[in-house]
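During the second half of the funding period, the structural biology subgroup turned its attention to how the target accommodates small molecules. The most pressing case was flavin mononucleotide, which had performed well in the primary screen but for which no bound structure existed. We therefore specified the complex as follows and requested a full 3D prediction, including the ligand pose.
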Amino acid sequence: MNRIINQAERKSKLALAATKYRSRRLQHHISHLSTHTGTMAATSSIPPAPWRSLFLEHISKLDDPYMSVSTVAFDPKTGIPLPRVRTCGFRGFFGELKLHHSAEKQLKDEGGLNPSIYESDMIAFTTDVRMEKVEQIKETGGAIEVLFWVKEVMGQWRLRGQAFVIGDSESEASEKAARSEVEKGLRKKSDNTGGSGEWSWEKEVTAYFANHSPLMRGSFKGPHPGTPHSQKPDDPNLSLGQKVKDLHDPVARRHFRVVVIRVEEVDRLDLNDPEKALRWKTTLDHTGHQRWEELELWP
Ligand SMILES: Cc1cc2nc3c(=O)[nH]c(=O)nc-3n(C[C@H](O)[C@H](O)[C@H](O)COP(=O)(O)O)c2cc1C
């Protein structure tokens, strides 16, 4: 009997903690709301993160870089936090998208190529807004961790921070808020070789969409992910295996999103020497000075 009561108490305490946590993160998120338009205004003077170049060097060893993306869900009945993890394609640092030849050609032909003038230390991946991770990101104020295991260098990278989801209509308040947060992490490149023309959010999201093959673009017109197979979509536009050439296909673009992660903590493990594993935690301080502090940890 006592055990059952203790379990119930534990559940309700966890649910309360989760609710408080969510509301704190949401407050934080809402406090950063600002009006925002399609083109870019100011950019940050953040220096490159100290872990950036080694991270890129390690990731470059992977032919086709994928990462495990972890978020937090909540049990609908008890409110208890539940871990969730899935594989996603790593799409580089936001603002620095390396376009495939065919995507670049299509964007150029259609006059939709952004000048390459920004860089950042924010990790990007693409997703479908109907997937559960998007709701989980919203519910937790963006709580996220991504993980890479790079066997070639015997290194594990865990990057934690806050995720922002962009790709909705620019008139949506949540889209404006997300863009304005992402903008804070963008730096103007020091060389001026990025080309001409005006940079816009719309062009940037479209470039991520263009970098998918027609079949992958078509996946954003699939039946609602995660719903029972027996449940046929009401909308005749939604089916598997479609190939989409149009970069502005209204159905696919309604569902397509770019998730941008502002990294706040990096936990790196180096297993090169089996007798002496090494581990570091590099954390962004919260004084507003964008200073990173590195601490060596016992592995
Ligand atoms: C190799 C591989 C790459 C994947 N890349 C992505 C990706 O970039 N974005 C994405 O949303 N899902 C990707 N997926 C599918 C996810 O792992 C997951 O099944 C899907 O996103 C639904 O997850 P959710 O319901 O937890 O949001 C990939 C799966 C595999 C196996």
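Two results from this model are relevant to the next phase. The mean pLDDT is 89. The radius of gyration is 21 Å.
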